Amino acid sequence: MLFIIGGTKIEPTKIVCLGRNYLDHIKETNAPIPTEPVFFIKTLNTLITNNQPIIYPKILYENQEFNRVDHEIELAFIMGHMGKNVAARFAFDYIQGYTIFLDMTARNMQIRDRNIKLPWYRSKNFDTFGPIGPKIIPSSDIDDPHNLDIQLKVNDELRQKSNTKHMLFKIPEIVEYISKFITLKKGDIIATGTPSGIKPIVPGDIIEASIEKIGKITHKVILEGDENSY
Ligand code: MG
Q1: Would residue 78 be called left, alpha or beta, if left means φ above 0 and alpha means ψ between -120 and 50 degrees?
Q2: Alpha-carbon distances, residue 150 vs 17, 216, 218, 230 (angstroms)
Q3: Measured distance CA(177)–CA(46) in Å, rounded
Q4: Buried (b) or exposed (e) across 75-88, using 16+ Cβ within 10 A?
Q5: Is this prediction's pTM over 0.85?
Q6: Helix H segments across 29-164?
Q7: Cα 47 to middle of ligand 1, angstroms
Q8: 207, exposed or middle or buried, with CB in 10 Å at 0-12, 13-18, 19+?
Q9: How far is the CA of 103 from the centre of ligand 1 (A)?
Q10: C-alpha 190: how far from its chain's center?
Q11: How many CA atoms lie less than 13 Å away from 169 in the CB half-sphere?
């Protein structure tokens, strides 16, 4: 799928997301600390870019059991080359650049599905649940992706604030690990996990997510069906 992020065309075949990659987030979700990277796939229908609305699914809004959608801000990188079995020491040679990704999550659905031993798939892959942007900063312009301030505000309230130095598994290990299992293609998007502070959003909210040296994305949350009233 051809997708344009801040003027840069990419052709991702998948979005690979790290789960449980910041200790403070692992604690807030009562999850076990992983001994190797935990990853899952988001589908391409989730992608939107800066200033496009996040559509809050009616099927969640109208179901008390499932009605919670959380923000998760994450540093993402874009693969510049195809890679399989990439050694950690060469990982940075494969990275085109960095950007901001929001791993939007239907939290109650995720918890409920996990509790009955079903996959996370549907809670992660609603349309518009993968905002990305505002642009791709070339890897040559970011000396150290593991020392970037990362923060997210909702309606001007600070919700998530951390630094990418707190990642449990760093980018070279992430590339090495994922590429043992699947071929990473040029254009693929890898999101490196979220710090603590995940909280629900509701229709009408304005989300502003920023990462040092990359910029900021802004997204309004709109209830499905109300798209034309904005
Ligand atoms: Mg996440």
Answers
A1: beta
A2: 17, 10, 14, 29
A3: 24
A4: bbbbbbeebeebee
A5: yes
A6: 58-61, 107-115, 121-124
A7: 14
A8: buried
A9: 5
A10: 8
A11: 25
Q: How far is the CA of 192 from the centre of ligand 1 (A)?
A: 8
Residue 100 Cα to ligand 1 middle (Å): 12
Q: How many Å lie between the centroid of ligand 1 and the Cα of residue 230?
A: 28
Residues 112-128 as b/e (b if ≥16 CB within 10 A, e otherwise) read: ebeeeeeebeebbbbeb
Fold of 3-223: Fumarylacetoacetate hydrolase; domain 2 (3.90.850)
In whole angstroms, give the CA distance from residue 203 to residue 90: 43
Q: Tens of pLDDT along the chain (230 residues)?
A: 999 999 999 999 999 999 999 999 999 988 899 999 999 999 999 999 999 999 999 999 999 999 999 999 999 999 999 999 999 999 999 999 999 999 999 999 999 999 999 998 999 999 999 999 999 999 999 999 999 999 999 999 999 999 999 999 999 999 999 999 999 999 999 999 999 999 999 999 999 999 999 999 999 999 999 887 75
CA 196–ligand 1 middle distance (angstroms): 10
105 Cα–ligand 1 center, Å: 8
